[in-house]
């Protein structure tokens, strides 16, 4: 059987004296999109923050490409090939789009950064059109594209996306989901938290339903969409 790219086993984590994850286990395999859905407070974003090293592991283990990464700092996790695009468009509002992209490659020391930025501008033309615009003046959809592009400049094997469509117009939501699919098709594995559950499940190879800090169900996106009980509880019928 193929080894998982990311292995999460019996993970407990949380904030200060509050434990949010109460023994979460999941395997994320190379290529494709995996989404996590569930009610607010279920622990979905906590999973991403724990994998990325923002939150301290209180129990269990996390491995990436067969090596333990729990206890590692975020910078080391980035260098191993994991990037994190947090909720809320984490960009530098007082810097231009071009300057943001240059900042996105802050861990790289190679000579291909300029070429990769140009390639991203060709892939996402809005970034080229707005290259001299302050990032704080971008629309929500444009800012999310920029945040994702900054993550891609880290050349990740695994991209962690936290609520990429939150607060966007329907048109921008469609564009962001299209971009996520394109990224996946180029070989980058995606683990995504998304409240727009139906849209997320529709493009996901695998999916997990979280509730109260535990995995309640795991399967393909299609299985969850076609499960009457899960559809009633988590997808509104």
List the helices and strands and how they pair.
Layout: E1 6-15, E2 18-28, E3 33-37, H1 44-51, E4 57-64, E5 67-68, H2 74-80, E6 82-85, H3 97-104, H4 113-123, H5 125-129, H6 140-152, E7 158-162, H7 170-185, E8 189-193, H8 197-203, E9 206-211, E10 214-220, H9 221-226, H10 228-234
Parallel strand pairs: 3-8, 3-9, 6-7, 7-8
Antiparallel strand pairs: 1-2, 1-4, 4-5, 9-10
Helix pairs in contact: 3-6, 6-7
Shape: globular
Q: What is the name of the CATH class?
A: Alpha Beta
Q: First CA to last CA: what distance?
A: 35 Å
Structural class: alpha/beta
CATH homologous group name? P-loop containing nucleotide triphosphate hydrolases
Low-confidence stretches: none
What is the CATH fold-level name? Rossmann fold
- The domain tally reads 1
Give me the number of helical elements. 10
**Lateral arrangement of strands in the main beta sheet:** 6-7-8-3-9-10
Task: Tell me what you see in this structure.
This protein has 237 residues and is of the alpha/beta class. It has one domain: Rossmann fold, CATH 3.40.50.300. Helix content is 37%, strand content 27%. It has a 6-stranded mixed beta sheet, with helices on both faces. α7 links the parallel β7 and β8 (189-193). α3 (97-104) runs parallel beside α6 (140-152) and α6 runs parallel beside α7 (170-185). The radius of gyration is 17 Å and the shape is globular.
